[in-house]
Amino acid sequence: MSEFPKFTTHDVVRYPSYIPDKKAAGKDGFSATMLKKTLPFTLNVLTDMVNRLLCDRVSPSCWKSARVTPILKGCSIESPSNFRPTFILPVLSQLSE
Predict the structure, then answer these.
(1) 85: left (phi > 0), else alpha (psi -120 to 50), else beta?
(2) Residue 76 contacts residue 82 (beta carbons within 8 Å)
(3) Number of C-beta neighbours around residue 53 at 10 A
(4) I need a surface site. Which of 2, 9, 16, 74 has the fewest CB within 10 A?
(5) What is the DSSP letter of 60?
(6) Residue 37 phi/psi, 5° resolution?
(7) What average pLDDT does the segment 32-42 reach?
(8) Chain centroid to CA 31: how far?
(9) Would the pLDDT of 86 be above 80?
(10) Secondary structure (H, E, C), 28-46
(11) What is the model's pLDDT at position 2?
(12) In angstroms, what CA-CA distances link 55 with 5, 44, 47?
């Protein structure tokens, strides 16, 4: 099997800039804004964590759990078929994608 290239702190620090501040938090309650504000203090830990997860080829089970929110796609709220589900994953799970 081929090895994944290691992420650097430069790689990880760029990721939050792609996430809109208003992005909803996942089930863990950790928002994009919180990630951005804590990044100067957590950058090295997050970089090591992402590299370890990729090297071990695992993903924490809590990162696989999504918050499901119905979004109205039609005009009538009376019919369940007028809703579509959206799945909101934890922000940190997207770091290792």
Answers:
(1) beta
(2) yes
(3) 17
(4) 2
(5) -
(6) -75, -30
(7) 92
(8) 9
(9) yes
(10) CCCCHHHHHHHHHHHHHHH
(11) 53
(12) 9, 16, 12
Which single residue is written with the structure tokens 């997860």? 53
Sign of CA dihedral 82, 89, 56, 7: positive
Q: Which residue has tokens 């922000």?
A: 91
- The CA angle 81-79-76, to the nearest 5 degrees, is 105
Structure tokens of 39?
Answer: 């990044």
Residue found by looking up tokens 């950790």 in the block: 30
Average pLDDT over residues 21-48: 90
The whole-number average pLDDT for the span 47-76 is: 86
Does the reported pTM lie above 0.90? no
pLDDT at residue 18 greater than cutoff 90: no
The most confident of the ranges 1-5, 35-39, 61-65 is 35-39
Tally of residues, the chain: 97
